[in-house]
Amino acid sequence: MFDFSLLLVIFYSGCGVYILNNRHFLIMLLSLEVLVLVLFLMMFLYFSYFEFEFFFSMIYLAMSVCEGALGLSLLVMIIRTHGSDNLYVFDNLW
């Protein structure tokens, strides 16, 4: 299946995108979803290697779906109220 070192490279690149490209809210949500999926694959590999049950990984996947839906609803709300997902528009709020 996947090599663990490849998953670590994808995880660190997702962290880099999340930290460095913080101008648009959509890019931040997409990089956060990449991190969530890579962590799910790491959990899946760990559980299958040690022959554990996959119940916790299914709970994690359900919570990540809820997180994605919440992020999408926040994105729609921000675009409706401010006109774009550019986070530098919110500088006057702080």
From TrEMBL:
Name it: NADH-ubiquinone oxidoreductase chain 4L
Q: Which family does it belong to?
A: Belongs to the complex I subunit 4L family.
InterPro entries in alphabetical order: NUOK/Mnh_C1-like (IPR039428)
Q: Name one GO cellular component term.
A: membrane
Q: Which residues cross the membrane?
A: 25-47, 59-79
Keywords for this entry?
Answer: Membrane, Mitochondrion, NAD, Translocase, Transmembrane, Transmembrane helix
Q: Which organism is it from?
A: Trypophloeus asperatus
Q: Name one GO molecular function term.
A: NADH dehydrogenase (ubiquinone) activity
Q: What broad class describes the main subcellular location of this protein?
A: membrane
The way it spans or sits in the membrane comes to: Multi-pass membrane protein
Q: Where in the cell is it found?
A: Membrane
Which Pfam family would be a valid example here? Oxidored_q2
What reaction(s) does this enzyme catalyze?
a ubiquinone + NADH + 5 H(+)(in) = a ubiquinol + NAD(+) + 4 H(+)(out)
